[in-house]
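Here is one chain, start to finish.
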Amino acid sequence: MPHSPLFPIVIIGFLMVNTTGCKKPSQPSGTSSQQNVHTEAHIDDQEPPDVMFDIKQIQASAAPSGSQLYDCSYQAGGKIARFRLQLRQSGPTSSQIPAAIAEGKFLAVAGSDNSVLLAELKNALEAKHLPTNVSRAAELPFDVAVLAEKQSRGPDGGYSSNPPGDWMATKIFLPKADDQGEVFLNINPILGKAEFSMKDPDYGDYVLQQLATVL
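Its structure:
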């Protein structure tokens, strides 16, 4: 589908009335500064739970110009899912508009075993079915709305700018140039963590089916 020139405007307009996005703000937890941030450990008693995975930023010379590239992994139950995350942000978030438009893609990595990860995502996204007969893809492009930067993560999984932290809260739209599915993707390169968080259970099966092609 061609990328409509109105699509960024549509996202911004939508977010201006829907900026609770990345979960409700939490009460501050721990101590933090922009130079030395102590981020919170993942809490597993959330309903539904988030799915947190490891990320490691790849040297800028290996990433496309203007992009950040991360090696990602999720290890549980003796299985390891591996994939890459590429992000390209057009500019910083603005005090005038509560979001910045970006774009990204998940890149498949050979040898990934996503069976446990998909089961966890099914629960987190409140999907009804695990994908079957999945055709693997080399990449899964998407649009991104950067909802907030310099966030700290509270014990309830919520985010707050007080105290500031190293988390960037985003929402991704699938497929690219459309919004058949939405999911929150929150990223902390300093901690080396990122997480998927449910936007709406109505998107669960679609988002899970799409992610299954590359994770």
